[in-house]
């Protein structure tokens, strides 16, 4: 209860204080910071996916600016020979303001990544975006079958059905490519599972569906029981190592991450960077209320 109260108060805390605790989750404010973090992980045999922080813009001129930033990032990362791809949030390109303009921007970014034979992952945001983000993926995959992927959220009651519906654009040459995560936004009970056990059960059902149908999953979790469940499914369906990967967030559970790498599985770390780190950080801190209570202790019990 106490931790939840603190989590609710996080947006009102001084930015400097939040930074002290959130810097472990963010590479930094600049592309150089993202490159440094990526090279460090690459040197340990770990791939990355780089994300420029920002979401839910208020006017379309911001979308244009964000697109230019991604285009420059892609050129820069390719020059640096980093073993990594990119993630982006459609609301950063105006999904909720002008769907077609948003599509145009993201299409240009995917085309740029495709010109380097690279890949863009479309993050999944909250439920008002779900249908539009699936539609975006469908359109992009039709034009760039190997260069785009989507995130799906195990807590959404619709997800299994979405997986089945999307099979019409799957083929063994250009498999569907999903990142499967639990889901981080606060959603109503009518559309989302709420209990830990329920979410985990559906996570493993979704994963099994992907593995048995030749869909490429990014198994994105830090939850040990889910990772153990994934190992069992990989064995059950005898899935080759190049047909799945594990994914984790920058700065979270490094020991567990290393144990997966040591077993010879592909691991990719999500590296966020940029000036708009505050919203991302407060979400991560809400997810982990123990960290939030450390903040309040730092504030009042110095
Ligand atoms: P769970 O929350 O049960 O955590 C399991 C354990 O992991 C915890 O007990 C703790 O030990 C550790 N842990 C988890 N989070 C931690 C943290 N912040 N700090 C410290 N320890 C922590 N969501 C979404 O809605 N759309 C998206 O596009 C994405 N994208 C995405 C990419 C990647 C690579 C990952 C790993 C996750 C996402 N997510 C996401 C977030 C995801 O939905 C989910 O909220 C978090 O991954 C936490 O869920 P876990 O599966 O780790 O389990």
TrEMBL record:
Which pathway does this chain act in? Amino-acid degradation; L-proline degradation into L-glutamate; L-glutamate from L-proline: step 1/2
Domain named Proline dehydrogenase: which ranges?
A: 35-293
Q: What residue stretch is flagged as signal peptide?
A: none
Q: Which residues form a coiled coil?
A: none
Per its UniProt entry, what is the enzyme's top EC class, as one word? oxidoreductase
Locate the residues binding substrate.
89, 283-284
Report which superkingdom the organism of origin falls in. Bacteria
Q: Which residues are FAD-binding?
A: 124, 153, 221-222
Q: How is the cofactor bound?
A: Binds 1 FAD per subunit.
EC nos: 1.5.5.2
Gene Ontology annotations of biological process type: L-proline catabolic process to L-glutamate
Any one GO MF term held by the record is: proline dehydrogenase activity
Q: Which cofactor does it need?
A: FAD
What does it catalyze? L-proline + a quinone = (S)-1-pyrroline-5-carboxylate + a quinol + H(+)
Instruction: Indicate whether Transcription regulation appears among the record's keywords.
Output: no
Q: Which Gene3D superfamilies match?
A: 3.20.20.220
Keyword list (alphabetical) reads: FAD, Flavoprotein, Nucleotide-binding, Oxidoreductase, Proline metabolism
- Keyword Nucleotide-binding attached: yes
SUPFAM superfamilies this protein is in?
FAD-linked oxidoreductase
User: What protein does this entry describe?
Assistant: proline dehydrogenase
Origin organism is Williamwhitmania taraxaci
